[in-house]
Amino acid sequence: TSMTSNELQQRYDLQTHIEANETSELKFWPLDKISHL
Questions:
Q1: CB within 8 A of 3, min separation 6: which ones?
Q2: Burial 19-36 (b: 16+ CB within 10 A, else e)
Q3: Over 18-30, what HEC string results?
Q4: Cα of 18 vs its chain's centroid, Å
Q5: What is the model's pLDDT at position 33?
Q6: pTM across the whole model
Q7: Cα–Cα distances in Å, from 31 out to 6, 23, 24?
Q8: pLDDT at 16
Q9: CA 28/CA 37 separation, integer angstroms
Q10: Which phi and psi angles does 12 have, rounded to 5°?
Q11: pLDDT in tens, the chain (37 residues)
């Protein structure tokens, strides 16, 4: 099945949003864990 450009754009936006959240967690979450060791 082919997707419309709008559907592709929404999927792309969702993926980049998820990646941005993962990047933020990788930056700050380990530092928080290390401080508790």
A1: 11
A2: eeeeeeeeeeeeeeeeee
A3: HHHHHHHHHHHHH
A4: 2
A5: 62
A6: 0.42
A7: 38, 13, 11
A8: 84
A9: 15
A10: -65, -45
A11: 677 899 989 998 888 877 777 766 666 656 666 565 5
Rounded to an integer, what distance in angstroms lies between the CA atom of residue 22 and that of residue 31? 14
Length of the chain: 37
Token pair 């930056």 is at which residue? 27
11 Cβ partners below 8 Å, 6+ apart? 3
Q: Which of 5, 2, 23 is nearest to 13 (CA)?
A: 5
